[in-house]
Amino acid sequence: MLGAYLILFPHARVASLVPILFIFTVINVPATLFLLFWFVTQLFSGGLRWGASGSGVAWWAHVGGFIFGILAVYVFARRRVYPY
Questions:
Q1: What is the model's pTM?
Q2: d(Cα 38, Cα 34) in Å, to the nearest integer?
Q3: Which residues, in sequence order, are CB contacts of 35 under 8 Å at separation 6+?
Q4: How far is 26 from 23, CA to CA, in rounded Å?
Q5: Residue 56 region, left (φ>0) first, then alpha (ψ -120 to 50), else beta?
Q6: Under a CB-based contact definition with an 8 Å cutoff, are residues 42 and 66 in contact?
Q7: For 32-84, how does the pLDDT look when each residue is reduced to its tens digit (9 = 90+)?
Q8: What does the alpha-carbon distance between residue 5 and residue 12 come to, in Å, rounded to a whole number?
């Protein structure tokens, strides 16, 4: 779903809770930046688990689901037809 959201709504903004020292504030972050940051953290976390005692399958499932969401948009999304 997150990969599909990235493709369908690239200019959307996401309200995000950000800690600045001991104060939490809400800022609006571009969805593209937020989702790519999330994807990289999943990829990095999965890579750190490679060869460790755990398999890290959950991290790789998130990476695979993100990529599948991107590909699914191109397969299943309907094109909008605008009347003249």
A1: 0.76
A2: 6
A3: 2, 3, 5, 6
A4: 10
A5: left
A6: yes
A7: 999 999 999 999 888 777 766 667 788 889 999 999 999 999 888 877 766 76
A8: 9
